[in-house]
Design brief:
The chain is mainly alpha-helical. Helix content is 76%, strand content 0%. The longest helix is centred in the middle third of the chain and has 32 residues.
Length: 250
């Protein structure tokens, strides 16, 4: 694709701008900012990745993965402001997810230990973990708010914090995992996933593309389970004080 062809795709930006203006949605500014940021960020990342791929240094790979984890954690933490130390809890979760998934992929020789494989796969898994963290925190805080009286009643009857918040915690974990599970039920029938489509467009054999996509969706199941459970069980203890009283989460 040439830059001329790429510039023509800005038509897909003009359409939402015109519709937003026509229906007075007020999204013009956000759309323009999002477009400009995506162009700058992706071009910058493209040049950085080109350098990292050519250097083939594990130090650069580590720095890239660390940067992705940091940015993902800072973005996800906005949804858990009332939870003490939520940033570190998310970072710990992201690190564990990265270690487990890459440990399996590299340890068993499923993919080569090169930047070309490690960084893109890490990006997909970390990005998915970030989204799941946001889904979990949104649902968890909503569950706590709507069932606060029930939680405090269990505490007043001598229940432990884990017993008091167990139902809300499990509901939030399940709710954050459902999108991943449901999307995989129709994968290939309703949509062709991004990684698979990209490989096919790039000229790869469709069967080879399917194999790599299966690798990703299986790994996503682990990220969905690990991230939701870890953030949940790391978060709920700090919602209570030493007197087993529930703290404000807003």
């Amino acid at each position: 694709m040439t830059y001329t062809s790429l510039s023509l795709t800005l038509i897909f930006v003009l359409i939402p701008l015109l519709l937003s203006k026509t229906f007075k949605l007020g999204l013009e500014k956000d759309t323009v900012i999002a477009t400009i940021r995506s162009i700058i960020q992706l071009l910058a990342v493209g040049y950085i990745l080109k350098f990292v791929f050519e250097a083939e240094s594990f130090i650069y790979i580590f720095l890239m993965v660390a940067l992705m984890i940091l940015v993902a954690a800072l973005n996800a933490r906005k949804n858990g402001k009332g939870i003490k130390g939520i940033t570190w809890k998310i970072i710990i979760t992201l690190v564990v997810v990265e270690i487990v998934t890459q440990g399996v992929l590299l340890g068993f020789g499923i993919v080569p230990s090169t930047a070309q494989y490690i960084i893109p796969i890490s990006g997909m898994l970390i990005g998915n973990t970030m989204v799941l963290s946001i889904l979990f925190l949104n649902r968890f805080t909503a569950e706590i708010t709507s069932h606060q009286n029930e939680i405090e009643l269990i505490l007043s009857l001598g229940g432990t914090p884990k017993q008091a918040i167990h139902r809300q915690l499990i509901n939030a974990i399940k709710a954050s995992m459902i999108p991943t599970i449901e999307s995989q039920k129709t994968i290939g029938l309703v949509q062709l996933p991004g990684m698979m489509s990209g490989q096919i467009i790039g000229g790869a054999d469709p069967i080879q593309a399917v194999q790599f996509q299966l690798l990703i969706i299986f790994a996503l199941l682990t990220t969905a389970t690990l991230s939701s459970i870890m953030i949940g069980f790391l978060s709920y203890p700090v919602l209570f004080n030493e007197r087993l009283q529930m703290l404000e989460t807003k």
